[in-house]
Protein 1
Amino acid sequence: QVQMVESERGSVQAGGSLRLSCAASEHFNETMCLGWFRQTPEKEREEVAAIWKGGQRKYYIDSLKGRSTISQDKDKNTVYLVMTNLKAEVTAVYYCAVDRTNSAFECYVLVTRAALGAWGPGTQVTVSS
């Protein structure tokens, strides 16, 4: 099973930007659905962004639309999440995850259910006001 490892924890002041990265143990292929999720002690794990088929389809949570970008680098087997104009409420543990899907819709369903097959251990993101 593919293994995912997120970048080290990040801390930033409110209004700043942060880039998270997640490296996979296998080469990306066109069936891969890659997602970023976050979780706090008060809330269940929720999807943040997802990318399918090398970027043919992308998905963002409403609260981060226009302030986040998900991308992937096939040569480095790495998926990125850039978040800008950060607010304190995005403080959470962020996870990346991957699964193989046959369609953008299947990817969307798995992402919205936080049901992708392989997960990284998570990394803490802290935004201070």
Protein 2
Amino acid sequence: QLQLVESGGGLVQPGGSLRLSCAASGFTLYYYAIGWSRQAPGKEREGVSCISRSGGVINYADSVKGRFTISRDNAKNTVYLQMNNLKPEDTAVYYCAAAFRLSVSSTSCEDPNVWGQGTQVTVSS
């Protein structure tokens, strides 16, 4: 079966950092663009970042540019989201999702094929 498992969430003070991991099992992430999204209570899910198959093309939401960094290690079948200078408004459940793509450079993370179950990130003093 195809699975993504997020980890690394937790409670952090404003200005702190967390590193989220998204590990795949049952399939190879090499063939997928990977996106991180988040959902806060009472709010719609919003896209955070998307990374192409090769890792060479990356998109970020304006709200996280300069603070978050997405990366991937295809050899480890894992994608990361480094989150720095966290703000209370970053509090949400963070999900990763894999979207099969033919192009190694596509940054489209729409219509993903596999979703993770999410990891909670809480930014509070």
